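=== Structure Prediction Worksheet ===
Name of assembly: unnamed complex
Input type: mixed (protein and possibly other molecules)
Chain count: two
Listed entries:
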Amino acid sequence: MGEIVKFFWTFLHTITDVLPIAGIIFGFQFFVIRKKIPNLKRVLTGFFYVIFGLALFLQGLEDALFPIGKLMAAQLTDPEFIRQSIFTPVAETVAQGAQAIEFHWSQYFWVYVFAFTIGFSTTIAEPSLLAVAIKANEVSAGSIGIWGLRIAVAIGVAFGIALGSWRIVTGLPLHWFIISGYIIVVIQTFFSPKLIIPLAYDSGGVTTSTVTVPIVAALGIGLAGKVPGRSELLDGFGLIAFASLFPIISVLAYAQLSEWYRKRKNETAQQNEA
Amino acid sequence: MKSPILHFLKTIASSARDLAPIALVIAFFQIFILKQPIPNMDEMVIGSILVVVGLTFFVYGLEMGLFPIGETMAFAFARKGSVFWLLLFAFCLGFGTTVAEPALIAVSKKAARIAAQGGVIETTDAAIKQYAQGLKFTVALSVGIAAVIGVFRILKGWPIQWIFMGGYALVVGMTMIAPKEIIGIAYDSGGVTTSTITVPLMTALGIGLASSIKGRNPMLDGFGLIALASLTPIVFVMAYGMLY
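=== Predicted Assembly ===
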């Protein structure tokens, strides 16, 4: 019974989120375009499915994924766990007069592995990335594979979050990483196939939504709260920025690699003919 | 003729496949690394079923509702030929979808608390609330403006990389002079603004416009709206932090 009541609230909440969007769309449709929407019934059913599906999705995440994701982030960053993990202490120094134990950054090994794998898997499950991949596949007449794009983006997010976790542990300034990341993007842009550039830039923004943000935020705040010398409020931020920068790099790299591969194949084909 | 039931089952199967990696990662860490049992097993199973069914309905609705409406509106605006109404629509869509975004509301509240701790504003509830509200509207405004610039770019056919690089040069420049506390929040706010409903709509709008205007390539000109919507919040939030 409680489950149904909870779902009802999530459903209402999702409707209030979608309401302004629906208002804008139908407002412009009726007052500015002043034309009947083709297949109105179908479109409305589609809207209902989107809201209903999203509400179920969010409810499921709240029940199953978020609690365990947050719990695991807390467990993996726990000093007790790090001390016991298979890596023997490299440089365990007790700060004078303080209770906090400082670990060498390499002792957070499992945190980075968790960051990488959870970043990858939550991105694969991200609905907005799926939406963009479907469109990209359609527009490119199949030359951009739905799975190719999703995996390229997921690798970027995974790498970004792992690196971002390392940054929180070491305490290096966030903007160094972000600025160097954008310099890499600028350089890649000059050497990439022109057609992929807008899609690659877009994939930075689509990756971080419903599934990834809550788990990644829990990881960031857990880390920043437990690593000595970090402030939960100051250093907990920044992981999302990593997760939206690195997919741009990985998608551009994917496009460059597949073009290089295609060129090489063509060359060998020509050589074989000659 | 494909039977709808078979199609539905196929979609359910692919949703389950999309979620399998998360389950694997959690199980691996829980069993082998943390060596702890998985808590509330039955709640986990029910929750996962809800997620799979929810994702399936979402994808169905996407193809039936969100994609077609985004594209038909783009076509209608292109035929109407009124740039003013199109840009106003883009602005409303960007602003309206962002201002209600739950992730943004959470981030701006946290940012206000940081500002209060750093002594930028008074530590009263009223001051914190006012700061959070201001920040929320700043981000929503920036996404609205991003949509206007993005649509205008599609109309003109400007290459996205020049706008993008110019924007990030601005971000780098502002990072040098912005207060330290705001930088992390500003960078993150670029990522949180684009929600699960905004992304498909904006993408459909961009591609619809690019394919209905002569001389535009949907691949080259249709994408890019989301990229701009994640760039302008960084600039605007840093400006907000500097001016406040």
